[in-house]
Amino acid sequence: MNRQVFKLSEYDFGIPKELIAQKPALPRDACRLLVLDRKKKAIKQGIFSDVVDYFEAGDVLVLNDTKVIKARLTAHKETGAKIEVLLLKNVGLSRWEALVNPGRRARVGDELLFDGSGVKAKIIGKTDQGLRVLEFNVKDLDRFLQDFGTVPLPPYIKKETKRFGYYQTVFAKQEGAIAAPTAGLHFTKNLIRKLANKGVNIVYITLHCGLATFRPVKTDDIRKHKIESEWIEISPQVAKIINSAKKEGKRIVAVGTTVIRALESVAKEIDKMSFIAQDFCGLTNLYIVPGYKFKLVDSVITNFHTPASTNLILTCAFASLSFIRQGYEHAASNNFKFYSLGDAMLIV
Predict the structure, then answer these.
(1) Above 80 in pLDDT, residue 158?
(2) What CATH number has the domain spanning 3-68+162-347?
């Protein structure tokens, strides 16, 4: 394998700022779709609702049912210094690991006050990754977040959207994500119904999108990046449906890089070059780079990802760096919209 694929600089495709989506397509499935055929090395384009045409009865569509919480908070110290807080992971009772900004002003022992709420949080620890451990003085933290938290939108979306519901999939169920599994944003209930009527098996797994999903790679050699763990859950029923489909020669179509990571994390080898899905509930820190041999996933529906992201690197591992670059160039020259609220890509 060409060692160039492990250089971080290869994953900066230089997307023009004017192509970064600032608002979603309405309806959701009216966004554009770029289709990359790996065998034919062919590229086609259409509308996302056309995706139904690429499925056959018996195929399995796997969706991530994680639900975004209002994890972004504004606080201040007793000195008046403003602190931005992004909750990442609940670590017991009223304790959360969080990203704080500016970090130099948030020291262990400091107390943070949240305006107008009467709620306080004490910084009781610091992790090896530089995160702060906060202990809140409120029992009903969910209610507090609903009342005082905001949507943790990506920084490249410059306008705060009032459509919180849009930055949530129509099938979101399990609370715990701090970022949406954006490939799933394109699905409508009607589109899911059309797929089901065609005989497609639609199943749901959970991966709570956390720091691993959006923290960029900074090491020059992408293989040296350390990815954070994220919570996944694959039920016995879902594993059974996937394994039956694989046995019958049907395709497993993953919606988003989160689903790919979750499924590939639970692949078990049963004989040479043959794998099954296992049910599992726990953490995964699977990091997929070029050279990885995919075990369960046959096709992918995904978004156009940010430079130097683990999501982009994973997508290149699935379809090759050169073909993904070709696809991005085609999309840019045809004015596709990029990133979380942008258009979609189907890789077959």
Answers:
(1) no
(2) 3.40.1780.10
